[in-house]
Design goal:
204 residues; alpha+beta; Cyclic Phosphodiesterase, Chain: A; 4 helices; globular
Length: 204
């Protein structure tokens, strides 16, 4: 049995800053179709947001949860972050995120992807190396590219066969990425965001 953890901040105001790849409307709709393929199979209520909220986080510079001065921290790292993204992304060719499977975790149903050029890994590594984490925090080490398709409304025990059925659903989405973005999130989970900067991927 899978013991799920209910999301207790869905739809609430927040403040966070992220590095994200741009997703085309066609990609968001394809991911929404995958959402619809499993929603009816899940035995408990799910949080499923609108297409516009679907996103991939390359790195969460300022997490949603945290009691430090987020604005002050952001001001201290905004310049170096922009410099890193400018260095790594300028002249880089566009990416393709290839979503190929669903994974059920204790907090969400996600779709996982690969990216062949190594740009996402390079961005993550440089941020971990060069940007000090927020006060009292350790750097976040990511080894997965994913988008969250649904979160849980309840704490529940879900049978293994349900998990296995959902994880066996077919997923095959090739998502073009033509720019890397810095965004400010103000309604969780990325239901409302502001674009701070965007670096086009224009190389060949």
């Amino acid at each position: 049995m899978l013991q799920t953890i209910a999301d207790d901040i869905w739809g609430q105001p927040c403040l966070a800053y992220h590095v994200q790849p741009s997703l085309e409307p066609e990609t968001r709709e394809a991911l929404a179709q995958v959402q619809r393929s499993f929603v009816e199979l899940w035995p408990e209520p799910l949080h499923v947001g609108p297409n516009a909220g679907l996103h991939v986080t390359i790195y969460p510079l300022v997490m949603v949860k945290g009691d430090f001065d987020k604005d002050a921290y952001w001001r201290s790292v905004a310049g170096p972050i922009r410099a890193i993204l400018g260095e790594l992304c300028t002249g880089h060719r566009p990416l393709e995120l290839r979503f190929s499977r669903l994974k059920v975790t204790d907090t969400a149903v996600i779709a996982t992807a690969t990216e062949e050029t190594g740009l996402i890994e390079a961005i993550r590594n440089r941020i971990v190396r060069d940007i000090p984490p927020p006060p009292g925090r350790k750097p976040i080490i990511y080894d997965l590219i994913h988008t969250t398709l649904a979160r849980y409304q309840t704490h529940a025990s879900v049978p293994d066969e349900v998990v296995e059925r959902i994880e066996s659903l077919p997923v095959s989405i090739t998502a073009p990425v033509r720019q890397i973005r810095l965004v400010r999130e103000t309604l969780f989970p990325c239901l409302v965001t502001d674009e701070i900067a965007a670096i086009p991927l224009t190389g060949r």
